[in-house]
Design goal:
It contains 2 helices and 4 strands; from the N terminus they run βαβαββ. It is α+β, with helices and mostly antiparallel strands and 109 residues long. The longest helix has 10 residues, at 47-56. Mean pLDDT is 82; it is low at 1-13.
Length: 109
Amino acid sequence: QTTRKDIPVTTNNDVNKELSPCVKKGEAHKGSNLPDGYPIKELRTKANLCWKMCQETTECEFWTWVSDSYNGKNPKFWRGMCYLKRRQSKTPTSITGFIAGAKTCSPFV
């Protein structure tokens, strides 16, 4: 069972911050989403809160977040999405606006 602490959720406004070197910019890591409501569709988070949710979730080892720079299909729906994952994809998809990282990877410098 997935367990995590409740973390306050705010709006999606992290796009102008400098990303950490450990962040995988422009990578969508499909598959391996955690159960129990993930991906988090009802909530719009900041990248740092997505990372913190991963840290606070026992089974999470990797996170993916969709930034405001995503302009693909239905951008208003996808921007701000947080995906908590069991593992990193072996073959990530290149999508502008997605950022991802390991549980130990803080998204910003």
